[in-house]
Structure formats: C-alpha cells, structure tokens
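Support reply, case 0932

Customer input (verbatim):
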Amino acid sequence: MIFEKNQYTPKRVLPYSPLPVYANNFKNQSRLLYPVEVRMTQDSENTLKVAQQAFEHFTHGLATGNWEAFLDMLTEDFTLWFPVGKFHGLNVGKERAREFFDYVSESFQGGLTLTLDRFTSNGTTVVFEFRDEGRLFEQPYKNRLAVSWDIRGDKICAYREYFGSDGKSY
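Our regenerated output:
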C-alpha cells in the first residue's frame, strides 16, 4: 500500500491497471489518484503466467472434455468451491476436482465456447470473468461467470466459481 502525504488516504496501485485508482478518506470523500510508478513483482508476473496457461487448459477442457492438462496444474490439496448442485460448497482434493470436471463434461456434452471479458490479478489470486455458451443437458445454455484461482508456485491451489445469469442470457 502506498500512502500520500495525507496518511488517512491510502492508495493501492495495481501493477497492470491502465485505469486511474480511486480512494476514499475517512470523511467519505472520493477523489481520483494517479499512480506515480507502476511495477509488477516477480511473484505477480509468475501468478499471471501460471493462471493464463491454466486458463488456456481450462478453456480447452470446457470445449473438448479433455481436462488432463488443466488437472496437471492443480495441487494435491486443491480446493474447489461451487455455488450449487451436486458439488455445492467446498470440495477438497485433486480427485474431487477430476469428478467435478468430468461432471461438467457430462452436463455439457457438446462442450462450451467461452468468451473472456476481463481478468484481474494480485500477487497470488487471479479472477477471470467470462461468458460461456453451449447445451446443458441438451437445452440451450449461456451464462456469465467469474472464477477466482489462488496460485501457489506453478500450480492452482484453490478455485471458486460464481455465476451471474439464468443460464439463458448474458
């Protein structure tokens, strides 16, 4: 965290953000702040590199049902949080992840196409926001989602998924 002369107005600088950063002081007054210097740490660069590679494998898995490359990027103590259904809540372990992604492939037998809208990252976590489209149990399906991945070294150690629509529209 970087502080201006007024110690009550912290400014957090995201190393890859092209947008200005806003901060609120204790009097609830918002003002525009511009980062003076922008740098990515080596850890942040590694996190982003690992996440981007994993996202390619994830996209491939959604499209084809072949999850091996993605599963190879998970830690043995991997955790997966899912908001609904058979896998609702916290799921622990790489084998449980394999069951989940096999279930995804069974549910979307023709695969899913994915459109990445944006992603954001800090030192250890990357969030991808995307739209996907396909057929869920033979019915037309499209949705807006976000997945949040925690990265440890060159592997994903945690996955959290959130949906944003009714499965029929973006």
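We compared this against your earlier run and they match. Two observations from our side: The mean pLDDT is 81. Residues 59 and 114 are 7 Å apart (CA to CA). Please reopen the case if you see a mismatch on your end.
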